[in-house]
């Protein structure tokens, strides 16, 4: 997010995909306490605006830690780290919903068949349910991948030198509002469109006939 380098956004996306997948899976398991834990996470992170979460990460969370750890976060830890974590954890809650929907859209018989063949529940998820679920939810994952790039602009509010922050800085120095706005808009469009095309290519290669989206048949 610093300048035109959006590598940290990719890191946030990886965090969101991994954590969101875990949360989506545990919310479909027979374990009531795992389901409750996953539901609590999703409800918490989905219902608090991203900008509020970022302020909590930057200004509240360090105060709750022991003094040494809090001072490290406030003084030594690069601002980009809590920004990436905030983006990743927020988007993970949204991806968890998609993964859960994808798994629940599959026939119950697939789970029973896997268990009848001697697979453990974990193996059923790994070899049967998740490969199908990911294919089904690829269109919605595309949207979330694009959204995380757009949501990265919110981090300017906590002082991260991302693209929108520098956009404001350049305008203040040059007063060339129209020209800078066009350039920045084009950059956001190129980034989002590139992600869209990459995900669309993957979707066409792994699409399951008869399924067009989560729950769609």
Q: How widely separated are the two ends?
A: 38 Å
Q: Helix and strand succession?
A: HHHHHHHHH
Q: Based on CA inertia axes, which overall geometry fits?
A: flat
Number of helical stretches of at least 4 residues: 9
What portion of residues belong to β-strands? under 5%
Q: Tell me about the biggest sheet?
A: none
Number of strands: 0
Rg, Å, rounded? 20 Å
Query: What structural class is derived from the secondary structure elements?
Result: mainly alpha
Bin the helical content: over 70%
Unreliable spans are 1-5, 213-217
Average pLDDT rating:
82
Protein topology:
Elements lengths: L6 H20 L5 H15 L3 H15 L2 H10 L3 H25 L3 H9 L4 H31 L11 H12 L2 H30 L11
Helix pairs in contact: 1-5, 1-7, 2-5, 3-4, 3-5, 5-7, 6-7, 7-9, 8-9
Describe this structure in words.
The protein is mainly α and 217 residues long. Helix content is 77%, strand content 0%. It has 9 helices and no strands. The protein has helices at 7-26, 32-46, 50-64, 67-76, 80-104, 108-116, 121-151, 163-174, 177-206. Helix 1 runs antiparallel to helix 7 and helix 5 (80-104) crosses helix 7. The relative contact order is 0.14.
